[in-house]
Task: structure prediction
Amino acid sequence: SRKNTRNASLHPLWQSPLTIPGGTRQSPINIQWRDSVYDPFLKPLKISYDPTTCLHIWNNGYSFLVEFDDSTDRSIIVGGPLENQYRLKQFHFHWGAINDWGSEHTVDSKFYPAELHLVHWNAVEYPNFEEAVMEGNGLAVIGVFLKLGARHEGLQTLVDALPAVRHKDTVIEFDVFDPSCLIPSCPDYWTYAGSLTTPPLTESVTWIIKKKPIEVDEDQLEAFRTLLFTSDGEEERRMVDNFRPLQPLMNRTVRSSFH
Ligand SMILES: Cc1c(Cl)c([N+](=O)[O-])nn1CC(=O)Nc1ccc(S(N)(=O)=O)cc1
Ligand SMILES: [Zn+2]
Result:
């Protein structure tokens, strides 16, 4: 289990006060399946990504991110719980040192070994990501759980690129990738109002958590764990356990798109 005593060994990012004063919709949370409320008015989520909007992969010292050209509406999501269409800006992962934990969200208090976040912003109402980050309906993040199982061929192209971004602040060009290959075909999801899970922790995220996980194999999870929090030349610290502890649900209801 993960105890607060581990703060000392936690990455500086998570040693800071992990709750923000006055925060009422912080993420991540535990999703208690039986407490989630089926909402028949939730629409199917429509995902349309243009693989050529992919730009590069970089190690930002917290995770590795694949960033996209968000200057047009070529890679968007619409529907689901969303009032507008949202543009894909980047995706990244959170994972553990071992397979017993690593995800940010949990389902009935179960951790997955890793979690994918696809980060989108409301380009209908806001001029850019920076503005959208500050607004309650500014962002939409799709969360996908990773579980240990069969090798994921689509993920492998990403895994093959990781040695080139082993150190913090390294980047490589990555010019064609369709992240929809990382999203389960099952349409079922939970949704709730939350926040970014790393600073600035702004309460601007509509979370859409897919019910079904994707399967990846042990070698692929191990490849994530070969990355470093540290820059080239610094004393190496393996990039693992880059997840935020669970936050209180407070006055929120998690809705489900399925019975
Ligand atoms: C705050 C900000 C701005 Cl503004 C910009 N920018 O490029 O203009 N980039 N960032 C950083 C950012 O995106 N953080 C972020 C943190 C957590 C998550 S998570 N795990 O999905 O909740 C998603 C993103
Ligand atoms: Zn994330």
